Amino acid sequence: MIREPGLSVRVKLTLSYAGFLVLAGMVLLVTGYFSLSRGFHPGVVFMVRSHAELLRSFAPTAVAVLAFLLVFGLVGGWILAGRMLAPLDRITDATRLAATGSLSHRIALEGSQDEFRELADSFDMMLERLEAHVAAQRRFAANASHELRTPLAITQALLDVARKDPNRDSDELVERLGTVNTRAIDLTEALLVLSRANQGSFSRERVDLSLIAEEATEIMLPLAEKNGVAIETSGDAAPALGSPALLLQLASNLVHNAIVHNVAEQGTVWVTAAAWPGTVTLTVENTGEELDPRSVAALVEPFQRGTERVHGDHAGAGLGLAIVDSIARAHHGILGVVARPGGGLRVTVRLPRA
Fold first, then answer.
1. Under CATH, to which class is 137-199 assigned?
2. Residue range 121-132: mean pLDDT, rounded
3. Nearest Cα to Cα of residue 61 among 28, 91, 97
4. Using CB atoms within 10 A as the burial measure, which of 37, 46, 117, 248 is most buried?
């Protein structure tokens, strides 16, 4: 926005200080003049012959005092305003740097806790979160481009082979193209769900996490039976406010991950919903290979998988926990991921209670 040039805050403060000082001096001088004109001054009695004589003797002194107060107020106000506004200059410089794309700069204002210090600390915190968000978005864009490029490249390779070998079995080609296309569609849909959750553009209504967990378990039951994984569901009513579709997506992703990243046979998944004062939780635990606790936090990052980045039948797009985290945050919730002793993962979603 373009605005007309005006006086700086420092000049305004300086004029305010000087004006207040001169005004206070004028009040004192007028008070003194009227005291003298009545022939009384604290401790001293004056015999004044006329107001004109008093005014002639009093005016030069009053003018000199006011001039001194004006100069003193301007100089002192300028210095004082500069010292008081120095932190604001640092905040302004940091803001200009941030506007040019430099998010790594921090104000790091020293001194006691005052309004400027609170503003600077809040601005530093905002820059830190913004820098982390921008970095995450860049990683996400790069990974999404890579993941979307893979099925397209495979499709192109299959078509090139079919073009060079007209006698190749078309049924096999169609089946492989269908598999690759399905994976590309799944990835695109996952990206759309993730974008919708990040934008928070959904209506909220009362939902029961325990019913959501049961529905997600029923959806994933065929996959669990195919993988030889048993699912145990328990818990009480856990009322929350949110989107039933997104919360079902959240629970389905958790159960899906727990089934896929499990032991080969005789694996188990535990799904539990619980209500606490002020919060409700959905916890999904699974047996599986032993994980490094230090690397568990990275699983929430988009396109990160618990195992190697190899596409199996149900390897997924690597967006499962990223979508869960985004949906939880969109519902003002928290996602917790910890490695289970002996192998597997425990994922807990904590949401405000309705």
1. mainly alpha
2. 86
3. 28
4. 248
